[in-house]
Amino acid sequence: METNQTTLHQGRVPIYPRSVSGRYRTIKYIVLLVAYGTYFLLPWFRWERENGPDQTVLLNIIERRFYIFDLTVYAQDIFWLAGFLIIAAFLLFFVTGIAGRVFCGYFCFQTLWTDVFLLIEHIVQGERNARMKLANSAWSMKKVLLMSLTWLLWLLVAFWTGLSFTLYWDDAYNLIYQFFTGAAPFPAYATTLFLTLTTFVMAGLAREQVCTYMCPYARFQGAMFDEDTLIVSYDEPRGERSCGRCKPDKGNKQQQARVEQDIGDCIDCGYCVQVCPVGIDIRNGMQYQCVSCALCIDACNTIMKAINYPTGLIRYTSQRQLSGEKNRVFKLKNIGYGFALLIVTTLLSWSILHRTTTELRIQQIRQPLYVHLSDGSIQNRYMVKVFNKRDEEMSYKLTLQQRPGFSWEFSPSSQLTLPASKSAEIQLVVRADNPQKDGADQSVTVYMTYTENGIEKEISATSSFYFPTQGD
Amino acid sequence: MSKDKQKQTVQTTGHAWDGDIQEFNNPLPNWWLWGFYLTVIFAVIYWVLFPAWPVGDGYTKGIANEIEYTTRDGKVVKTHWNTRALLQKDLMEARAQQQKFIEELNQSTAEEILKDPAKRAFAFSVAKVLFADNCAACHQAGGAGLAGKYPSLADDDWIWGGKYEHIEHSIREGRNGNMPGFAARLTGQQIDDLCEYVVSLSGEDKENTKVASGKALFSGEGGCVACHTSEATGNIAIGSANLTDHIWTVANINDQMSHAEKKQAIASVIQKGIARKMPAWKNRFSDTEIKMLALYVHELGGGM
């Protein structure tokens, strides 16, 4: 059998985490509820818009427009995505530096979905012992039934996860109808299938291996840790004392007796190991597999309360606190990350709050760069693009600054009316006397005036005018 | 269970050579094997459904994979699955989508198309591609032209006329630009005088006596007026160039050239003459395509 082979790949040791309740488990369930509630329900809620679809969040690729509540993101605003990602990265660094793998333990979708899959496994097959027994038992009718029920429920969650993702990219009610009548576009089926499979494999089969072997974040987080970073840790001096841990016996049931005999407070019940979703023993110290889910804290505290010992044998602490000093939060690294986070957040908020409702662009047509005309003058052509990002029809007037020797013409017209959320291209032809005057300003600036909310506004866009150079 | 997996005992194939040489048994990982079996199953299904095996002169066509489409000439083609037919089918479907726009354009005048932003955008985007595929080989990108060879379409000088109907006619029927060479009929001195006059027409500095003699030749012995008209402004009906403006359609002249260089370039044209030909496109373009192209070309140079 394979169990006797030496292979380069270490086979997975199945983990059957035992359930536990406590403070951190409760927090994790709340996070799970909020995250699932948001992810699965958001596309179904409607949102009144004067112009555009009435879906709360709709990412429309074809129209190149993202509708997010009252915010409409156009293709040219895509740098907001960069801003958002930078914020996410700095937030991650900031939080990880102070509080360790908070993201891994509470918010990462791998953790959330694995949690739900484990819950299903628990409901169908029972507690840890029952699951282990079932897994090790020979195939029977009961085993086949329970296993297939588990997999079926997993598949359902995975499928609904994949389908929910696709609902963000089109009208949810319409798409779901199309989806089940076979009329949905191919990418909807492909995306749903792909995400169903990955969800099923990652959350159902691979689980902690994703964090241990696949996730890059788990690998580079070490760079963000220092001695002040919060870690889930076993209080070894208290747990072991000089004589080590031991199971409660006649003479050492009370904590007082243990202190006197120099026996550790850890009663070696193994609950902290049984609840661990990555299958480690936290008492062996900090390990790279630990995602800081804090379930061992809940487990240990449950036991400590039951036997009337003080809680906190396993707790959130730091290397510095463990060595008896006070934690330092205000230090250059944390302040730096916090400051960077603040700056990027401010910039992005400012950019979103001050987003323009009208855009004007000018681009020179460079083929050919310039043209000799019959009267000896030089002509340049430009494409002027006007975006109306408001929810109403707008009228615009285009003009150029008067300059001696220059004349121009907008085609088809210098006045235009644009319906809500539309753009238009207007050709601009500029002619200038040749030869150019020495030191003449060679820029071309288009001014556009319009009335917005009763206020007259003017915006401009600048390009260059090219004259032939010597030898042309 | 976990202890079993980590046991470092090694399995061998069980055979010993020369008494003590044994071979480790390292079977392929199961995930790999199953992946391989799946590809085998996939291949067999593929053979059945898609064209796969050569048989004699032909090949197996696969079952239940018929593609049906209508060609441009209205022929209905039914064939087994193949990527060429798929492309044809996609193209025909895209063409059908375009058809309603094309029909709208068919029924609109040039002015109407330009006024309607949607029609204008459609016409220009189609024409831009047509121009790049068919016209830009000679007239260059953006209609810049090639000095001395292919006229620029981006300037405001239209040898054959710059109205929509002129441009449409040029594209549909093609153009033949001919000017006889005068090397045999005129002496070097006469040609030099003529050049002097032609340069002066564009407002260049002039040598009065030679200009006068050149002017006499232009309307007299040279016979230039027959085509270029007595005002030397050309005639779009026969495609004779306007010699009074700043645009040189054949002689490769620019502002930085000296007087002598300019004369040299013009003399060469007078001596050798011109034979330029633009082919007719009526057999290659539909009427609507010609209409869209004319709009596009008109816009390139601002038309007339």
In short:
The complex is a heterodimer of chains A (472) and B (304). Chain A is an alpha+beta fold and 472 residues long. Chain A has 16 helices and 14 strands.
Overview of this structure, please?
The complex is a heterodimer of chains A (472) and B (304). With 472 residues, chain A is of the alpha+beta class. Chain A folds into 3 domains: 11-224, no CATH class; 231-322, no CATH class; 358-464, Immunoglobulin-like, CATH 2.60.40.10. Chain A is built from 16 helices and 14 strands. Chain A has helices at residues 23-41, 79-99, 102-107, 109-125, 128-136, 141-167, 172-181, 186-206, 208-214, 216-220, 236-240, 255-261, 271-275, 295-306, 319-322, 332-353, and strands spanning 57-60, 65-68, 71-74, 231-234, 314-317, 358-364, 371-372, 378-388, 394-400, 406-411, 415-418, 423-432, 443-452, 455-464. In chain A, the strands form 4 sheets. In chain A, strands 6, 7, 8, 10 and 12 form a 5-stranded antiparallel sheet that branches. A 4-stranded antiparallel sheet of chain A has the order 11-9-13-14, with no helix packed on it. The model of chain A is unreliable at 1-5 (pLDDT under 50). Chain B is mainly alpha-helical. Chain B folds into 3 domains: 67-104, no CATH class; 110-174 and 282-301, Orthogonal Bundle (Cytochrome Bc1 Complex, Chain D, domain 2), CATH 1.10.760; 178-278, Cytochrome Bc1 Complex, Chain D, domain 2 (Orthogonal Bundle). Chain B is 48% helix and 11% strand. Chain B contains 11 helices and 8 strands. Chain B has helices at 2-6, 30-49, 83-106, 110-115, 117-139, 164-173, 188-201, 208-219, 225-228, 259-272, 287-301; strands spanning 12-17, 21-24, 54-55, 58-59, 67-70, 76-79, 175-179, 274-278. Chain B has a two-stranded antiparallel ribbon with strand order 1-2. In chain B, a hairpin with a 3-residue loop joins strand 1 and strand 2 (21-24). Chain B starts with a helix and ends with a helix. Residues 1-6 of chain B have low confidence and may be disordered. Classes of the chains: A alpha+beta (472), B mainly alpha (304). Chain A binds chain B through residues 3-7, 9-11, 13-14, 136, 365-368, 371-376, 379, 381, 409, 411-412, 424-425, 427, 429, 434-435, 468, 470-472, and chain B through 1-2, 4-11, 25-27, 29, 114-115, 117, 120-121, 140-144, 152, 154-157, 203, 242, 245-247, 254-256, 299, 301-302.
